[in-house]
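Predict structure. Chain length: 242.
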Amino acid sequence: MKMVAKTDKGMVRANNQDAYSVGELPGEITWAVVCDGMGGAAGGDIASKLAVKVISDKITSCYNAKMRDASIKNLLDSAIAAANIEVYDMAYAHSELSGMGTTVVCAIVRDGEIYIAYAGDSRAYIASKKEVRQITTDHSLVQDLVNQGKLTEDEAEHHPNKNVITRAVGIDKMIEADYVQCPLGDDETLILCTDGLSNYVTKKELHDDIVDGQYYAFADRLVKRANKNGGGDNITVVAISK
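Prediction complete.
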């Protein structure tokens, strides 16, 4: 597996409240975690870094090669649940951090199969030479309106409440993560990202930046593209290719 990653504060924000971690396990297993923090003062930064650490530690300490698909799902679910408890408890214990939270999208890639758990509006895409497909569904107010037929996909892209999310790590005592499992083809790349990328880079632009197959440049190109298009938020990209 080939993997590249990059994070950037963007062109507008004073600091970077995104966080990520990536790694490999024996047997050519690849994993990644991407979080986008939210909260006043340093809250978002603390929430995202804490969630990334808890989830990363859980994956690296609990994964084993004999796990079946259902066990990997349970591992990712429990990792996000553990992060939720840690972030929620820290916010409860420190009044200045009240209300902090973070989105999350985390993945394990094994034997050409992708296992993803997520909460919030950080996304996962599969990109190939033919197309780019979003394989997660945002937990957001606007996505709920799309699901109800009250907004079209095009209207949602430019809606003023696009960034209002309905699920995040650390906001409530309990969290329900969604889960996706799908294959990763030989000519495909898994992209995990925060909304600093997805809000500023179209699917066509994403496709244009990966179509030549030069995987080592993917993350850098996409971050530069988001900044060129305004860079109004922190940007994080992880790209994993076979």
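Summary: The radius of gyration is 17 Å.
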